[in-house]
Specification:
heterodimer, A: 416 residues, alpha+beta, Chloramphenicol Acetyltransferase, seven-stranded mixed sheet, five-stranded mixed sheet, 33% helix, B: mainly alpha, elongated, binds zinc ion
């Protein structure tokens, strides 16, 4: 696949460089735990092969006068020793300008993705391919047929499905209503803390089926209930922000960003779990209606299609957006819950890969976020946080235990 | 293993409970060191001090030979850039209206003062230099007293910088001139540094060590 010199970033992808400020990068991180210690040489050559296969990810970010672009990156591919800092900033200079930072420590491989380049779904395809290449190098016999080249892997799916006749009224106001906020003392330095719990997937599904809802809704409802009990004042409504994989609704092979988000707002006085699940379920279903998804898609594209953003110089745009964000003191959501779903690797890969974890970034407005995913029959539920307090995590896992789900906990013990 | 204190199941054999912080074994801290947080080095104060010194030296050596109107204006505007950067860095995330208003008013007043000085100054370069110092000083006080524990890494070099503020005063004396303004700034900055060191000795000394390690 040849790249033109200026590959224009997809519509929502171009937002991320804009909000790249001194303190935050829009990154997300995967941690793959192998059965044995990582071999850096194999990892590097697997990474090189993966970049070759997904040529549109072998890029660097360049800001010209009017917008940011992704340009083919011809520097040497590099990997690093993991610093132990979860979701810190990617040092582009050290990373030879690559937008994906791959590092290793003991038997863990960490992938840090800059959000401009892909969403969780696209990233997973990239990682799967790399892991299979790695496994081949270690001598395992793995079938790689399920990762063949598809058409339109780097298409701008937003543009393809953009419906210009969407009634845009009320979009902005609903997206901006103030929500319940999690408050705490921020960490002094770069990087996040995580507390993650693992449990048998079957067991978790059984319990969620008992409540007649999906696993996402079940976990989300328990989390929202916990937050409301700890921080609620009966006035502000807790709201959960769930990224939606648009490929499920608008078929596309794209590996670039193609997500929208469902904002589920609950009343401030939710009390018991059944009630919360029911409300969250209906709110999510409403957000997933085709007309609402189209609206969300439209909203994601307006920024790119707006004449102001097209012709305003880039540095000015960045300053304006950053300043605007700083002026907004109330957050629009309480928490983000992202589910990457069940990760399936080809037969035989379980002998190489032990576990896959997914970490979501936090900022000062949503200081605690939740991610989940499962691999090889194990469900991981992972809280990442930007604050010292871990009340939510403690109460959440206590609640889960009361519901009969005894998670196995681990953490990076970040405290300040 | 299972935590005796809160009853949660824990993966592996860590030295304390991730949820309730109950300590299982004292030898510990291995896991913490292996996955250290990474040493944070803050180059901003160093940049600030260098910029500060450069500004002063330039003004001192070429100050008398120039027609002041344009250079003063340019220097004032240029001096706003590091101030803006430092403010952005120091206050990043301090998202309350009071802090923003403080910053804005410092910038505006500094600008007004310099404009006034251009139109009726007697000794432009001292004025710029000291007002630059003074604005950073006011800013630091605001920031520190708002939330010391969070922001002290960003002001690590302040005691060092405050010692430098005696230089303009010494030069004034050497030139046989006497300006109250540099003296006031130097005194105030040093006093404030001493107060900070007295209030938070551990943190400040740590930061000083880090600063010199850069
Ligand atoms: Zn415990």
């Amino acid at each position: 696949m040849r790249l033109s010199k200026w590959t224009i970033t997809d519509n929502s992808g171009m937002l991320y460089p804009l909000i790249l400020t001194l303190s935050t990068q829009s990154n997300f991180e995967f941690c793959v735990t192998l059965q044995e210690a990582v071999n850096p040489l194999y990892l590097l050559s697997a990474l090189e092969k993966t970049y070759e296969r997904f040529a549109f990810t072998k890029v660097e970010l360049q800001n010209n006068l009017f917008r940011s672009c992704l340009v083919e990156n011809n520097h040497r591919v590099v990997i690093h020793q993991n610093s132990g800092k979860l979701l810190g900033r990617i040092n582009f200079a050290k990373n030879n300008n690559y937008l994906i930072e791959v590092s290793y420590i003991d038997n863990e491989i960490h992938f840090k993705f800059f959000h401009s380049i892909a969403d969780g779904n696209g990233a997973m395809v990239f990682i799967k391919y790399l892991l299979i290449e790695y496994a081949k190098l270690t001598g395992s016999q793995i079938d790689n047929d399920n990762v063949t080249v598809k058409n339109g892997e780097n298409e701008n799916a937003y543009q393809r499905y953009l419906d210009k006749n969407v009634e845009a009224k009320g979009l902005i106001s609903s997206a901006k209503s103030a929500s319940l906020q999690v408050k705490g003392k921020y960490f002094m330095h770069d990087g996040l803390a995580y507390i993650s719990g693992e449990i048998d997937l079957k067991k978790a599904l059984e319990v969620s089926h008992k409540y007649n809802c999906s696993l996402t809704v079940f976990i989300g409802a328990v989390a929202m209930l916990t937050v409301n009990e700890l921080y609620g004042n009966g006035k502000k409504s807790p709201s959960l922000f769930i990224p939606v994989n648009l490929r499920k609704f608008f078929p596309s092979n794209t590996l670039l960003n193609f997500v929208s988000s469902a904002k589920c707002i609950l009343p401030p006085d939710v009390k018991d779990l059944e009630n919360t699940i029911e409300l969250l379920s209906s709110a999510l279903n409403n957000e997933l209606k085709e007309e609402n998804l189209k609206k969300a898609l439209y909203l994601a594209s307006t920024v790119a299609n707006n004449p102001f953003t097209k012709f305003c110089p880039f540095f000015l745009k960045r300053e304006l957006i950053t300043f605007g964000r700083e002026l907004v003191t109330t957050g629009t959501q309480t928490m983000i819950l992202s589910n990457i779903g069940n990760v399936i690797l080809p037969d035989g890969m379980d002998k190489v890969v032990k576990n896959i974890n997914f970490f979501l970034n936090c900022n000062r407005r949503t200081p605690v976020n939740l991610s989940m995913g499962s691999y090889n029959g194990i469900l991981s539920v992972c809280f990442t946080r930007h604050i010292v307090e871990k009340k939510i995590e403690k109460a959440f896992f206590e609640k889960m235990r009361d519901l009969g789900l005894d998670f196995e906990i681990h953490s990076n013990y970040r405290e300040h | 293993m299972i935590c005796k204190n809160c009853g949660c199941k824990i993966k592996g054999e860590p030295h304390r409970c991730p949820l309730c912080d109950f300590v299982f074994s004292e030898e510990s801290d291995k896991s913490k060191k292996k996955k250290g947080l990474g040493f944070y080095k803050n180059p901003f104060t160093l940049i600030y001090i260098l910029a500060d010194l450069a500004l002063f030296l330039i003004l001192y050596f070429i100050g008398d030979k120039l027609d002041w109107d344009k250079p003063v204006l340019i220097a004032c505007l240029v001096s706003l850039i590091p101030i803006y950067l430092i403010i952005r860095h120091v206050l990043l995330g301090m998202r309350n209206q009071a802090s923003k208003l403080t910053i804005l008013s410092i910038l505006v007043s500094l600008f007004l003062v310099t404009i006034l000085e251009i139109t009726g100054y007697t000794s432009g370069y001292y004025y710029i230099y000291t007002s630059f110092h003074a604005s950073i000083f006011i800013l630091t006080i605001v920031v520190v007293f708002c939330n010391f524990k969070v922001y002290y890494p960003y002001i690590s070099g302040f005691p060092v910088q405050s010692l430098l503020s005696w230089i303009p005063f010494a030069i004034c004396i050497a030139r046989g001139q006497m300006y109250g303004y540099p003296l006031a700034v130097a005194l105030a900055e040093n006093l404030f540094s001493i107060i900070m060191i007295c209030c938070f000795p551990k943190e400040m000394l740590n930061q000083l060590k880090r600063f010199f390690a850069v």
